[in-house]
Structure of Pectinesterase catalytic domain-containing protein:
Amino acid sequence: MPYTRREKILDACIVITFVATVCTVILFALLLTVLRPRCPVQKILPSITVASDGSGDFTTVSAAVAAAPQQSRKYFGIAIKPGVYYEEVRVPKEKTRLAFIGGGMGITVISSNRSWANPLEDTATLDVKGNGFVAMDITFEHTGDPTTGYTVAVANDAEDTAFHHCTFKGIKGVLKASGFPQFYGKSNIYGAVDVIWGTGSAIFQSSAVYVDKPYFPGQEQVPRALTFQQRSSPSSKEGFVFQGCSIDAAPGTHQSGSPPVFLGRPGGAYSRVVFMQSYLGGLLSPTGTGWLFDSSLSPATTLYLKEYNNRGPGEGPVERRITTGEAAQFTVGSFIEGDKWLPKTYVEYTSGFL
């Protein structure tokens, strides 16, 4: 039977109607996507505010910590307004899940200058022992005399702690990282000797470590180390991992005449440090094991200092490099089991390789 002109027109109308309907549905869906209310980015909201000018609930960070609840099951946010707060802040064990929320690195600053005590963390600008601690957008600095001892900006002995967009400044022993697990993301660390030390399991991700010049005359030719890691046994979880970081000389220090800086100084026979997917600058020693040995500890086969997929003039020899399979155990998701606890802190992180 011949296909009439009327039927052709009818079929064309059906096709046009179908196409128009589909386009309408797609357009409506797109409009809903654009116009519907967006869910806000989740974050820890402050419960109290610190302001040095008296415009907040407290004028010191220490007073705010004292007012925070004990053994909290949810995060208690403390907003710290821009300014420099000259004090030593202590977060004791009973103050769990505190969150310091600053106004930005170099904008909110907590500073102290007492250089010597035993134990060393007693002179730290910030001493953290309460589990679940979080800090973001703050500078912690220690301006004390390094010739009298460590200048500890932060001593972190707690578990499940995260620092994000923070700066740590000092000269010797700037950041003590002890306890399991710890995460430091998108942060800056400045120091000259044993910059990062301790017994912890910590990952430094997408951060920068700036190695300063020797801290007083006569030390220009003394070898130095970036880390001082103190793993206790071959089966323990401790170790430091630097992923996606930049390790280089501090800006404007002109250290061309200084001896190379070693990646680590072992704090025991089982010390473990890993540098992966990072830039290693020319100030670092590109030869040998990467360890700086002193008279108290000779080279041992149980030490572990390895590299994976690094770049830069300080990249080590083939003997230091590990395979992708071996490096996978040092990602955030594996080494510090970050997927189990970091989402609760609302800090940014990458679970696997960058």
